[in-house]
Design a protein that fits this description.
single chain; alpha+beta; Aminopeptidase; 9-stranded mixed sheet; 29% strand; globular
Length: 177
């Protein structure tokens, strides 16, 4: 498996992988277009057209020439401090459970740390994301965008973290879901 940055020709394949990964998932966003794709597939398109898009943080996992997974992190904020929001993280259903998602998470977190980012946030299962150093935001000075998310909203600090606290704000397109 190889992890690389997204290229312009990857857009449709990423959308298909994201739709497949979230179709039928317990907590996927409802479709927002005439198609039946889950909202996460559309969200990536919206993010690409937003100033919060950071191309270096849109990564794909490849098996040969086939894209089998994708992760994206976009500009977010904790109060007035810059942060990253991770998601969606998508892996082809037939490849889930084989380390693809873990490889993507390690790659995006390593890239974020190398670029001097301080903190990242995501919405996901604590049992899965704790292996990457994520903790429920409720145990920190960061408050989730929606208090109803409880322990499913998590943060991970990186090397440049300086105890920033405040409300976490995803990139604007997340509010459209």
């Amino acid at each position: 498996m190889l992890i690389r940055r997204e290229r312009s020709g990857d857009t449709e394949e990423i959308r298909a992988i994201t739709a497949a990964a979230f179709r039928g998932a317990d907590h996927s966003a409802p479709p927002v277009e005439p198609s039946e794709d889950p909202g996460e597939a559309t969200l990536i398109s919206w993010l690409r057209d937003d100033p919060a898009w950071i191309p270096e943080f849109s990564l794909v996992a490849l098996d040969g020439d086939e894209i089998i997974g994708h992760v994206v992190a976009t500009r977010a904020h904790v109060g007035s401090f810059p942060a990253l929001g991770i998601g969606p993280v998508s892996v082809l259903p037939r490849r889930q459970g084989n380390g693809v998602g873990s490889a993507l998470m390690h790659a995006v977190l390593g890239a974020a740390d190398a670029r001097g980012e301080a903190v990242v946030g995501l919405l996901g299962d604590p049992a899965y994301y704790s292996r990457f150093g994520f903790v429920p935001a409720s145990t920190t000075a960061v408050t989730p965008p929606d208090p109803a998310w409880g322990d499913y909203f998590q943060i991970r600090t990186l090397s440049d973290y300086a105890h920033q606290g405040g409300a976490f704000q995803y990139a604007g397109p997340f509010d459209r879901l």
